[in-house]
Design brief:
Methylamine Dehydrogenase, Chain H; Immunoglobulin-like; 6-stranded mixed sheet; 30 strands
């Protein structure tokens, strides 16, 4: 099979009833040199299999392996054929009929068999060839979307959907690799992505606590096929923040009987939200004078900490433990 290049290709010019034709200009890739005896097409393309296709007056096309200079196949066409061209992907060779048939034979390069005939409805004579600067640049375009527009808990799954489009004029052959800074690398199976067509793939990202604390997560992704890279697409998914603390208060002892007796209050503070709470965490109790400082570090979701304070019973014996209340303050960055 012959391989394509990414720049110029030769174009086969023919005449038919006084009119000039360009045979499938965007599809033909390389044309042979014309002489009075035969047409020669050498695959001097980087990476191509070194074969030459030669048409002769005897109605045959001869396939020569140029690495050993031996004929490896003879393709009988019966009529006299002239100009030779090869398709961009190297799968087919096109041979023009110079016997006033107005046809072009299509030869499969893998089997060296004629697979079809193109009827141009004119009597054709190959007379000229030239190199035309026709752009053959495979181009991929990628877009990304997500299964959810927000997240609110560590461990939540975000599924990214990648849509890759062939945005140029040549087929994209082979698997397409997606590289995402969040999900890593995946491969989308692909045989032949035609111009204008799209293919999709998915990958899953698991939300981390750091993503919740940051407030958003942004991915950056691109597609690649052989030496062709797509654009870089980004998508931002926002966090749904809930900053909250819950305090539970207990006392020891639960009863008092004399003035001067000391009551110890125990405060258990739990982070009941979904983001880290930055210290310090302070308790405000209606029966205690001043702030009760109890924790100077970050408190993660569902984590808790405890603190203590004491109160001395005075002559106001009507006061009871049940009449005291407490709340907690925190400072979040």
């Amino acid at each position: 099979m012959l391989n394509r290049t990414s720049s110029n290709f030769l174009v086969h010019m023919v005449y038919g009833k006084g009119e000039r034709y360009m045979i499938n200009q965007e599809q033909l890739y390389s044309i042979a040199l014309v002489s009075t005896a035969m047409i020669l097409m050498l695959t001097n393309i980087t990476g191509a299999v070194p074969f030459a296709y030669i048409t002769g007056w005897d109605g045959n096309v001869y396939v020569i392996d140029t690495s050993i200079n031996n004929v490896t196949a003879i393709i009988p066409l019966k009529d006299y054929y002239g100009g030779v061209a090869v398709a961009p992907d190297g799968t087919n060779v096109y041979v023009e009929n110079n016997s006033n048939k107005g046809t072009v034979a299509v030869i499969n390069t893998a089997t060296n068999n004629v697979t079809s005939t193109v009827n141009l409805k004119e009597n054709l004579i190959a007379f000229e060839q030239f190199i035309a600067p026709i752009s053959i640049n495979p181009t991929l375009t990628i877009a990304t979307s997500a299964s959810s527009t927000s997240y609110n808990v560590a461990g939540q799954n975000i599924t990214y959907i990648y849509t890759v489009t062939n945005s140029e004029n040549v087929d994209i052959l082979g698997n397409i690799t997606i590289t995402d800074n969040r999900t890593g690398q995946i491969s989308i199976p692909n045989t032949n992505l035609a111009p204008g067509k799209s293919i999709t793939g998915t990958a899953t990202y698991i939300i981390k606590q750091a993503d919740l604390d940051a407030g958003s997560v942004t991915n950056s992704v691109y597609a690649r096929n052989n030496n062709t890279n797509s654009n870089i697409a980004t998508l931002t998914v926002l966090a749904s923040h809930n900053s909250a603390l819950m305090v539970v208060k207990s006392a020891f002892p639960v009863n008092y009987s004399t003035i001067g007796q000391t009551i110890t209050y125990i405060y258990t503070v739990t982070n009941s939200g979904n983001v880290n709470v930055n210290g310090p965490i302070n308790i405000v109790d209606s029966i205690i004078t001043g702030l009760i400082s109890m924790y100077n570090k970050d408190l993660g979701p569902e984590q808790n900490t405890t603190g203590l304070a004491t109160y001395t019973i005075t002559h106001n014996l009507w006061k009871s433990i049940e009449k005291s209340s407490a709340k907690c303050d925190f400072f979040s960055a």
